[in-house]
Amino acid sequence: MIALKLLQLSLFITTVHSAFFSNSISGSARVVVPKFENSFGITSHMNEKKQLRETELFFNMDKLSHKLSQLHQSASPESDEKPYRIIIAGAPASGKGTQCELIKNNYGVVHLSTGDMLRAAVADETEVGKIAQEYMNSGKLVPDDVIIGVVAERLNQPDCLEKGWLLDGFPRTRAQADALASTGVSADCFLFLDVPDELLVERVVGRRTDPETGKIYHMKFSPPDSEEVNARLIQRTDDTEEKVKVRLQQFHDNVDSVKGCYGDIMVELDGNMAVTSVADKVKDALEKCRAAV
Ligand code: ADP
Fold first, then answer.
1. Distance from the CA of 138 to the center of ligand 1, in angstroms?
2. Does residue 281's CB lie within 6 angstroms of at least one atom of ligand 1?
3. Could you tell me if residue 125 is left (phi over 0), alpha (psi between -120 and 50 degrees) or otherwise beta?
4. Is the CB of 176 under 6 A from ligand 1?
5. Bridge-partner residues for 215, per DSSP?
6. 169 pocket-lining for ligand 1 (C-beta < 6 Å)
7. Quick check: 95 and 277 in contact, CB under 8 A?
8. Which of 239, 247, 252, 254 to mutate to test the pocket of ligand 1 (most atoms within 8 A of CB)?
9. Does the C-beta of 208 come closer than 6 Å to ligand 1?
10. Which position among 207, 208, 243, 281 bears the catalytic label?
11. Is residue 207 among the annotated active site residues?
12. Of these residues, 172, 203, 208, 281, which one is catalytic?
């Protein structure tokens, strides 16, 4: 029974993927995407032929949510151990990415960063990427209906259902939190990393990525120790002082309403400590949340 459900789910997802990530738009990508960012199983589908029209898909969002909710509910109860479902939130450069690597390794959950997913979609010139690009380039949030569809679909893929997930960068608005709840998907723990704004700006503008390894450096706090790595580092196009101010504003406009949705499972942590100290606190928090499930 579960195998049949998962087969149905895969067929359904293939169709949705094709619609979201069709590659029919020409033009050059303006956002630099490191190779590692293609690890979400998205880009492997990028070249599939478009099977549903974009408009059809957008107007069918309700149907999509309902279908995903049904499949999710029918697939979960039969698994032996309940997969861990975690949301991590915080301002730009609050350290989510670093902690996500550690959490993913400790708990074996699937890491889903909406920023990375969107950058991959932009680089692959998909329909979603084309819509997202101008918002991302100016530091603004991508429209809720675009990102909700992407996340809802991804959370219901077999790997997330089996291993659990770590949602990084979503929900970022009250509408996104409500949409997630309406699909019947709930998290076990909501981690919030708290870092003062004045530190965030400095963290963002000095941030660089190694496109070969995906490793994140900071030119002042953690520069690479080899000239070779240094020469190939890239900077995200939205990691400028001007754009981070817009991103921070968007964050402050929405954060309280999102936190308000997760009061019962929220753990707020000081993100202004050494990485290892934050990691220890994250681990404690996740153990406590798990015990409470
Ligand atoms: P950060 O949170 O550090 O600004 P991310 O890599 O998480 O960076 O996101 C980069 C950009 O992707 C955001 O500025 C926004 O334009 C877009 N984005 C990511 N997640 C979402 C989301 N949940 N809702 C709307 N836009 C999003």
1. 11
2. no
3. left
4. yes
5. none
6. yes
7. no
8. 247
9. no
10. 207
11. yes
12. 172
Tens of pLDDT along the chain (293 residues) come to 444 344 344 434 433 343 333 332 222 222 333 333 332 333 333 333 333 333 333 334 444 344 444 444 444 444 456 899 999 999 999 999 999 999 999 999 999 999 999 999 999 999 999 999 999 999 999 999 999 999 999 999 999 999 999 999 999 999 999 999 999 989 999 999 999 999 999 999 999 999 999 888 999 999 999 999 999 999 999 999 999 999 999 999 999 999 999 999 999 999 999 999 999 999 999 999 998 88
Tell whether ligand 1 has an atom less than 6 A from the beta carbon of residue 207.
Answer: no
C-alpha distances (whole Å) from 291 to each of 82, 88, 100, 159, 265 are: 12, 18, 20, 23, 12
**pTM of full prediction above 0.90:** no
AA letter at 63? K
All structural domains of the chain, each given as residue ranges with its CATH number in brackets, are 2-78 (no CATH), 82-109+164-292 (3.40.50.300), 112-152 (no CATH)
Task: Choose the catalytic residue: 208, 236, 243, 281.
Answer: 236
| Nearest alpha carbon, ligand 1 atom 6 | 115
CA distances from 144 to 86, 107, 118, 177, 291 (A): 20, 29, 13, 10, 33
Residues listed for the chain: 293
